[in-house]
Amino acid sequence: MYIYHIFFIHSSLDGHLGCFQVLAIVNNAATNIRDSRLRHYSSCPLGARDDAQDARAYFTTPIFYVNAAPHIGHLYSALLADALCRYRRLRVPSAAATRFSTGTDEHGLKIQQAAATAGLAPAELCDQVSAQFQQLFREASISSTDFIRTTEARHRVAVQHFWGVLKARGLLYKGLYEGWYCASDECFLPEAKVTRQPGPSGDLCPVSLESGHPVSWTKEENYIFRLSQFREPLQRWLRGDPRAITPEPFHHAVLQWLEEELPDLSVSRRSSHLHWGIPVPGDDSQTIYVWLDALVNYLTVIGYPNAEFKSWWPTTSHIIGKDILKFHAIYWPALLLGAGMSPPHRIYVHSHWTVCGQKMSKSLGNVVDPRSCLDRYTVDGFRYFLLRQGVPHWDCDYYDEKVVKLLDSELADALGGLLNRCTAKRINPSGTYPAFCTTCFPSEPGLVGPSVRAQAEDYALVSAVATLPKQVADHYDNFQIYKALEAVSSCVRQTNGFVQRHAPWKLNWQSPVDAPWLGTVLHVALECLRVFGTLLQPVTPSLADKLLSRLGVSATERGLGELYFLPRFHGHPCPFEGRRLGSETGLLFPRLDQSRAWLLKAHRT
User: Fold this and answer.
1) Cβ atoms 214, 173 nearer than 8 A
2) Class of domain 397-594
3) With contact defined as beta carbons under 8 Å apart, do 410 and 387 qualify?
4) How confident is the model at residue 96 (pLDDT cuts 50, 70, 90)?
5) Are strands 57-65 and 316-321 parallel, antiparallel or unpaired?
6) Which residues contact 270 (CB under 8 A, 6 or more apart)?
7) Gap between the Cα atoms of 90 and 537, Å rounded
8) What's the pLDDT score for residue 541?
């Protein structure tokens, strides 16, 4: 079981292929084709995985703080989790086998202060901002099964029960806690994590070394969690599972943190100072620390403290931003171990988005509104951009021209142009999946004969697309969705080269020589498109649906289990051969530089 949290041959410098290189292509293609033929109709089709032993999977995003409106970083977290979840559903179609939660974090001092500034009760502010997140996720086609709010009654029950378990196990004690506290980050900091920077008046003021936010010295009686007892168990967990935190640089960073001593952790605040939260059971003078409260949401969603949660928890994968890594990779696993549970199965970590090289900031006026971007670039377009350009282990930069260039190149021109070429009435007048001619394109490369038309590069294409589902599966497993999309895009370019090389528009359906090869060229291209459409479903669900519908692929033929590529090439019948294509026509994805006048205006200003 798994629970998922969401925390390119180019050869020779002159561009020409030598004889040896062509031979390598042919031989490699033949090997890959023979290997794929052996797997082709096996019980575990290419691109699918045997998930019988992994009957359930649970993916989570962070729950998002409601002190401000959502930005593209929030949407990126949700899209990463959504793509992982949708891909999992392609592998294991049963709806009951996969859960995906997101939600809003609604307690804490920041909410209390933001509500007072806005002249609202905290609950009113939470309702307003939580509704904005829910609306954004609906518009962005986020396929979550649960939306949790920490102000819900079910969550209070879960948090207070979790607290009781920690207390019963002797892991909570009351003591005087003294140290630096950052209200903006809702966390305590050791002296080593505090620095001094000039304030508005020029005086040196203490700030967090990590976030730059102001800190203040706090001294109060709190409940304290014996975090210091868990340094070695956490080290054993991470050293025993090198993929527990992905990508690897973040795994390494946490192990480095654990080389230092772990001080015990304050897990409550005085209610007189923080009233907007969940009270400590049996002690109304204390409010549970917002981060402990928030982290338990992952348990609340799956039914904790009822027994049903136990069948989901071992399968949990968290998708989180790097700014909350310490909370999810140190505090949360320690709390779980303290409560007698295992750490999450996986913690997937992503970096941040900058805007034209600068950090997003209200003061700079460069905060990107995700809902506006969904409207400008279309939902699937913006989903594709963020997941194609977002690299989890380093910060990614956003600017409008970058979005337009990518979407016009890869979705409008390469993918959309390929589909339009292969379904155009002038080239495909019957509007069907044409027949594949095995004498024009024999399965063994290097055969010669009057009817053989396939070239070495064509076998390389077949090999590339045949192995694409496996590549994509590996990239998803490694939390590299951007690499999965690059692999698809590379094959789209190869397929366009195949069509351009054989120029079906120059061939004649009435010619007994041309017709079999013309049909074969279109058949291969349509088969490639079918693979691309299937693999793009987790990222661009509406666009992929439109593409597959144009090809006449039914809803029951779109899973990884049905992804048999080019069966006629392997001597098997093709269920699509002779089938009428879909009736819908038109552009798959319109070019943005021609249809979005706002871009020119934005560029001028």
Assistant:
1) no
2) mainly alpha
3) no
4) confident
5) parallel
6) 220, 221, 222, 285, 286, 287
7) 9
8) 98
Among 233-242, 491-500, 575-584, name the one with the lowest average pLDDT. Answer: 575-584
pLDDT digits (tens, 9 = 90+) for 42-90: 223 333 344 444 589 999 999 999 999 999 999 999 999 999 999 999 9
Reduced to 3 states (helix: H, G, I; strand: E, B; else coil), residue 47 is: coil
Domain with CATH 1.10.730.10 in the chain: 397-594
Region of 327 please: left (phi>0), alpha (psi -120 to 50) or beta: alpha
Question: In the chain, which residues fall in CATH 3.40.50.620?
Answer: 57-350
- Per-residue pLDDT of 304-353, as tens digits, reads 999 999 999 999 999 999 999 999 999 999 999 999 999 999 999 999 99
Which two three-digit tokens encode residue 333? Answer: 């696993």
Q: Tell me the mean pLDDT in the region 190-200.
A: 83
* Relative orientation angle of helices 481-502 and 72-91, to the nearest 10 degrees: 70
- Residue 239: phi, psi to the nearest 5? -70, -25
**pLDDT-based confidence at 15, cuts 50/70/90?**
very low
Is the domain covering 57-350 a CATH 3.40.50.620 domain? Answer: yes
Helices 541-550 and 514-536: angle between axes, nearest 10 degrees: 160
Q: Which residues of 58-94 are buried (b: 16+ CB within 10 A; e: fewer)?
A: bbbbbbbbbbeebbbbbbbbbbbbbbbbbbbbbbbee
Instruction: Give the end-to-end CA distance of the chain in Å, rounded to a whole number.
Output: 52
Q: What confidence tens digit (pLDDT) does each residue in 386-403 have?
A: 999 999 999 999 999 999
> Collapsing DSSP states into helix, strand and coil, what is residue 593?
helix
Q: Residue 180: beta bridge partners?
A: 189, 217
Confidence of residue 219 (pLDDT cuts 50, 70, 90): confident
How does DSSP assign 328-370, residue by residue? IIIIHHHHHHHTT-PPPSEEEEE--EEETTEE--TTTT----H
Q: Who contacts 235 (Cβ-Cβ below 8 Å, separation ≥6)? A: 255, 258
Which DSSP symbol is given to 96?
A: G
Which alpha helices (DSSP H) does 339-455 contain, by range?
A: 370-377, 379-389, 400-407, 417-423
